[in-house]
Design goal:
single chain, mainly alpha, 10% strand, DNA binding
Amino acid sequence: MHTFAQHSFGMQLAQLSRAWRAELDRRLSGLGLSQARWLVLLHLALLEEPPTQRELAKTVGVEGPTLARLLDGLESQGLVQRHAVPEDRRAKKIVLSPQARPLIAQIESIALGLRKELFAGVSDEDMQLCQRVHAQVLANLEKD
């Protein structure tokens, strides 16, 4: 593949990611949540088991102290709770509160509407090809 095409691919991917996130943030602004906070809530909703604070930081892609501040805010809003881990006194499991569920349903509904708009005209075959390309690039990044 030509070097310019590779460069364009990377730039386009970064631009797409920023624009998609900004549009979703704009649509979610009426819910009173910052982008960082709704992202934490969505990750918590998607995980099968409540993660530790450290696991959640890794999943969301933020540093531990940053996540701690986000969780402080979400906890003060009554949206998450920190539960002690009996086998490790330093660790805390992060659990969504019942109050968070209706809010997450709104976030997911808004996000689904945006995805439908963004993927209009994209065939299943094109989506599968794109996912294969992304998976290969990610695999290449993870090589030692």
